[in-house]
Amino acid sequence: MDGIYGVAAVDALYYAGMKEAHRVLDANGILIVKCMDQVMSGKQEWGHIKYHNYGTELGFKAEDLFVLMQNGQPTMRHKPEQQKHARRNHSYFLVMRKKK
Prior knowledge:
Helix 1 (7-24) packs parallel to helix 2. By secondary structure, this protein is of the alpha+beta class. 30% of the residues lie in helices and 31% in strands. The chain has one domain. Strand 2 and strand 3 (43-45) form a beta hairpin. The protein has helices spanning 7-24, 47-58; strands spanning 30-35, 38-40, 43-45, 60-69, 90-98. The radius of gyration is 15 Å and the shape is elongated. A three-stranded antiparallel sheet has the order 1-5-4, with helices on one face. Strands 2-3 form a two-stranded antiparallel sheet.
């Protein structure tokens, strides 16, 4: 099966990309990370917080956060009576600056 599946695989991809960005950016360089929170197997996965923490661990400083709203209704995979968490209709741009 080709592709990236599951939260752990996506997280590893984000971390590797952010690590590479830190390697190639000059001091004060800007990194923008687009991400989305999600619910997996009934558990909240707050990607914007997780990727912010990855960035600070790697040596970035958070500069700004944009919330991008999607037009229309978010995808509903379950019957309304089975829905336990808020549906996601937005994503984030994390703006981070490489520390000197």
